[in-house]
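re: that chain from earlier
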Amino acid sequence: MSSCDTATGEADALGAAYEQLRRWVLAGAAPGSRDGTPCGLGLVLRAGIAGWMAQQAAGATAPAPHRPAVAPLPSGELHAGVVRVLASIALAHRAERSP
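^ sequence. v structure.
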C-alpha cells in the first residue's frame, strides 16, 4: 500500500466520521443525550472543525473531562440540626432588631 493509498483511506475515514456527526446534528439530536452521539461533538463545539479534524487525523481520543468530587448529602438528622441552628440564628437576629 502506497502512502497515497494510506492518505486516501484516512481521508475517507475522516469524511465518513464527519458525515456521521453532521447527520446526527441535522437530525436534531440533543447534545447531552446518550443515544449514539458520534465521537467529537464536544470537540467541534469547543475547538471547531479544524481542531476536530486534527484530532481525528492523529487518531487520538479525547481525555475524559475532570469531574470534581461531589460532597455527600448530609444525613436527615444532621440536616435537621443545621436547619435548627440557622433558624435560631435568624430568629435571634430578628429579636435583637425588634423594638
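The chain has a mean pLDDT of 74.
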